[in-house]
Amino acid sequence: MNHRGNYFFLVLFISASYLAIRSYSCSKLKTKWTVYITNAVPDDIVVHIKSTDHDLGNHTISSNEVYSWTFCQKYFGTHFHGYFWWGSRYQSLALADQEILNICRIRFDGDEDCYWLVLADGFYVSASNKPFPDGWYKKKSW
Question: Does the pTM of the predicted model rise above 0.90?
Fold first, then answer.
């Protein structure tokens, strides 16, 4: 085999190894989280979600719809912040930080979920998607 063929297989091996390590690190060494935001107000809301590493941009969530995203928890802190607009109302709050993830953590050894419910009187968080108000904690008002 010539040098080009060796180089191709070396690059292929390194790429495959990186992808295997990367997927392993989230599923085995770090917690994979999915955060759900349910809009329970009668109008559309707009949310801008960002962390120090990722800017998920603006998302319009219609009434009774859900927006979600997934991330791998970092060892030294994960922090996603949300900026919400509902008509002329505005609010910002932490959607995934150590305090919130501790509220949502159930398993300690696998994938986790965190649920947010946006109501006319404020923002509620829960570890499970039970009917309101069972298990929901109010974190902030509009």
Answer: no
